[in-house]
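Lab notebook, bench 4. The sequencing result for the construct came back, and we need a structural model before the next group meeting so we can plan mutations. Quick request posted to the team channel:

Model the 3D structure of this chain.
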Amino acid sequence: MKATLHVLLLSVVSMMVTGDLHLSEKGTGPGCLVGTRLAFDLNTTLEETKRLNNEFFDCPNPEPGVPCFFYSHVFKPFFIIEGTVEGESDRFLDSYTFKVVGGGRTRGSVRNYSHEEILNFNSLSDSESSRQTLVWTYDDVPDSFRLTKEGFLLMSNASNRVRWLCQRNSPCGDLTPVNLLDPDFFFIIEVSNRETASSPFCEHTLRFELHAHGFPLDPVRGLFFMQMTMTVIQTILICYIGHTCWRLRQKTVHTKKRDGLDEQDGNQFKAGDVLVKVGSMLHSCFLQLYCIIFRIVQNPMLDHVIMLVVLFDTSTLIAQTFQGVTVRTGWCLSAVDSCLLVFYVVEAVFKILVRGRTYFRKPWNVLDFFIVFMSLLEFTLSLVQSAGGFSSRQASTLFRVLKTLKGARVFRALRLLKAIRFFKGLQAILLTCLQSFRSMSSIIVLMFLFLFIFTVIFREMFNESDPEHFGNIFRTIFTLFQILTLDDWSLIYMTSRDNGAPHIIYFLSLYIVVELFTFLNLFIAVLADNFQLSIRKKRQCKSQKSPDVKEGETQSGVKAVEDLEMSQAELEEEFHKEALRFASSDSKQSKRKIELISRHLQLLAAMDQHMQKYRSQACLLDNLVETFFTVRSFSVYML
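Done. Here's the predicted structure in C-alpha cell form:
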C-alpha cells in the first residue's frame, strides 16, 4: 500500500514539474488518462525522412537536443501519446494543426511570434485556394482538406508531408550564409488538436524545436548578384569605350594640328543645320560603338576570357555533384552560377549584334544560345515562384518544370567542348570522328540487323533453358550486348548447359565471330583508315606549304611590277578625282582644306608606289639568295 501511494505521489509530482517546465506539452480534459502527454517521435520521423528522400543530411553544426533536417527534403512528422508513469506509448492518430509559432537565425535569437504573425505565416483564410503558407506547403496535396476557424490547415497521418517553402515575406526567407556555409534556421513548431479533437474530453498541445539547414539562394538575391556582375562588366566596357574614343579624339586633334586646319572653319554652320549635325553625331557615335563591339567580338582575348569562365563554371558544376559540398556550400555555388550566367548572356548578345542571323549558322553558337536560354528560363521561373500567388496545383506543376530544367542544366558541361577550338590536335581528332560516321553508318546498320536476327534465334531456342537471360526480347538484347563485350559469356554457356542445352556454344561462337571479330573490328578499321587519311592530308599540306609560299611571293612580285608600269600621271589623276569627289560631298569645306586633302592623297599615292617597289625588290632578292644557297648545297653534295 505504501509502494502504491509512493508511485502515485511521484506521478503527481512529475505532472506538476512537466506542467511547470513544458507548458506546451499537456493533456487536459476529464477523459484524459493521468500522466499522458503528446510527444514528438524523432526516430520514426528520421526513418521516414530517409525513406521518402532516399538520403539524409545532418547539420554541419548540429545543436544538442534539436533535431536537424535538410531544407529541400520532405518532412513527415510522427507523434505519440506517451505515458509518463508506466512508460508506455501509442501512436497519435487524431487530426491536428501544424503551426510555426517561433524561430530565429540562431538558437540564442529564437523568439515566439505574436498572434498576428502566426496568422500571417500559417493561416490560409485569405487564400484558401493556394493550399500553401508563407513558410511551408503540402507535399502531397489532398483532394479535399479542412480548415479551422482561423484558417489553419488540419493535418492527419494520411496527409502530413511538409515541404519548406520560406517565401520572401516569411521570417526564413532570403537568408544569407555565415562562414561560407549554407544558411540555417530554427523553428518552433506547435502541434495541437485543441480545435480538432475527436473526443471532447482530451486535448493535447506540443511545442518542439526544429533545425533546418541548407537553405537555397533566394532568386531575388540571385538577381541582385546578376545586376552587380552586369554593373562591373558595364563599367569595364565604358572604360574601354572611353579610352578608345579618347585615343580617336587625340588622333583627330593631332591630324588637324599637323595639317594646320582651323577648327573654327569646321564649326561654322547655319542655325537650321543643328538637327543635321546632331543626327550625324549620333550616327557617328553609333558607328564607333558598333566598331568597338566588333573589335571586342573579334579579339581573341574574349575567347580566352570565356574559356576561363567555362572552366570555372565546370569546376563548380563538378563540385555540385558531391553531396557534402552541395549541402554545405550550395548557396555560394548558386550565387557564383548567377554571376557566370551574365558572362554567357553578354557574349551571346554581343555576337548576335555583330553577326546577326549568321550567328545561328554555326552549331556551336546554336548550342550556346540554347544553354543560355534554358538557364534564363529556369532562373525566371524560380523568380516568379518566389513571388508566390500560385495555387497548390500550379505550384506543383511549376516545381516539376523547375526540376526538369535543373536536369537540363547538365548541358552546361557541353560548353567545355569550346576548348577544342584552341587545340588543333583535338579539333582534328573530333573532325575525323565526325567524318567517319558517314562511312560507319552502313556497318552500324549491319550490326543491328544481325543483332536482331540473333535475338530472335536465342529467344526461340534458349528461353526455357535460361529464362533469366533469354526470357523475353528485351532481356535477350541486353544479354547479347553483354556478350558483345565478352563479359561473362562463359557463365551464360554453363547455365544453358546445366539446363540441358549444351549446343548453345555453337550459336555463341557464331555470334561472337560475326559481331565482334568481323563487324566491330571493321568498325575500328574504318576509323583508323580515316585517321591515316587525315595524317596524309596534313603531311601533304606541309609539303606544299613552301612551294605555295614561293609561288605567292613570285605572283606578288609580278603584280608589283605591273603596278609600277602605271604612270604617275594616271595615279595623280585617279587620286585627284577621289579628292574632288570627297570635297564636293561637303560644301562647307574650305578651299584650304580641299587643297590639303588633295596633297595628302598625292603623298599617299607616292608612298604606296615606293612601298610596292621596295616589296618587289625584296622578293626578288630573297629568291636570288635562296637559289644561290640551293645550288651551292647541291654542288657540295655532288662533290
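Confidence is low (pLDDT under 50) at residues 1-24, 261-272, 556-569, 585-589.
Will bring this to the meeting.
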